[in-house]
Write a structure and sequence with these properties.
A hairpin with a 2-residue loop joins β3 (32-37) and β4 (40-47). Strands 6, 8, 9, 11, 14 and 16 form a six-stranded antiparallel sheet that branches. The chain has a five-stranded antiparallel sheet with strand order 1-2-3-4-5, with no helix packed on it. By secondary structure, the protein is an all-beta fold. It has strands at residues 13-17, 24-29, 32-37, 40-47, 61-65, 91-96, 106-107, 115-118, 121-125, 135-140, 146-157, 160-170, 173-183, 208-218, 223-230, 241-252. The protein starts with 12 loop residues before the first strand and ends with a strand. Residues 50-59 have low confidence and may be disordered.
């Protein structure tokens, strides 16, 4: 059903709902659409285009909501990348900075996961906390066709040809999407290696900080599990060699 209301040029065309005192009114006047509840304006929309096609879903102009209370708001209008929109931009849906704690990450063994400060950066794990451990988190995602994960990996203390890795959940299970081997000293004798900068942990070992990880893949599942781990042996104390994670970002399109 369509209702046309036209009070004339310069006049307020209105449609009212509810009884007096609890009335909600939709107004249209001078190219401005608004909704009032009682004496309060709760929404207004003023397109820049002054023509018959002005009030379209793609409004170019001003849109203001003064007050809203809702138990739940859901939307399903995100444009998934497809052959018709191959240039669809990435949408960042999660960013874990760890400035307020572990952000829901968990560790597979040992004490509860903690954060550290290393070189002025808050990291997940760190010296004496994560070495042979696997840390993980599962994210619930909006509708999408691709996913991208970026993060920073920090190699701390006595890394000796060990490998760090990140895995993502796929239709065939957890799949390692990034791996990197690192040794703080590539010489046969460690005395031949120049001392570098130790940002945290043991002073005698230079740290390799903020290694950028960026991985994207086709993905349509409603959830994504990210894991970080290493090949460091469980017998090696975490105060001897460790790692940390920072700035984990999950994007979809």
């Amino acid at each position: 059903m369509t209702i046309f209301v036209d009070a004339g040029d310069g006049k307020d065309s209105t449609v009212s709902f509810g009884a007096a005192g609890k009335k909600v009114v939709m107004h249209s006047k001078d190219n401005v659409f608004s909704i009032t509840a009682g004496a309060n304006e709760v929404l207004s929309m003023k397109p820049l285009a002054r023509d018959s096609a002005a009030f379209k879903p793609e409004v170019i102009g001003q849109f203001q909501i003064n007050s809203i209370t809702a138990a739940n708001i859901e939307g399903d209008d995100f444009d998934v990348v497809n052959p018709e929109s191959p240039l669809q931009q990435w949408l960042a849906v999660f960013h874990d900075s760890f400035t307020n704690g572990t952000d829901g990450w968990a560790v597979n063994t040992g004490p509860p996961l903690q954060t550290s400060t290393c070189g002025g950066v808050t990291i997940l794990g760190g010296p004496c906390k994560t070495s042979s451990h696997i840390v993980s988190k599962t994210y619930e995602l909006p509708r999408h066709a691709q996913v991208k994960v970026t993060a920073r990996f920090h190699f701390l203390d006595n890394w000796d040809d060990d490998t760090a890795w990140m895995s993502l959940s796929t239709s065939s299970g957890q799949t390692k999407m990034w791996m990197e081997q690192y040794s703080w000293c590539s010489q046969f004798f460690t005395l031949m290696c120049a001392e570098g900068h130790s940002a945290c942990g043991q002073d005698k070992y230079p740290d390799k900080l903020s290694r950028l990880i960026s991985v994207s893949m086709e993905h349509t599942e409603p959830s994504l599990t990210i894991q970080f781990g290493t090949t460091i042996g469980q017998e090696i104390p975490p105060c001897e060699v460790s790692y940390g994670i920072s700035s984990v970002v999950v994007e979809v399109r």
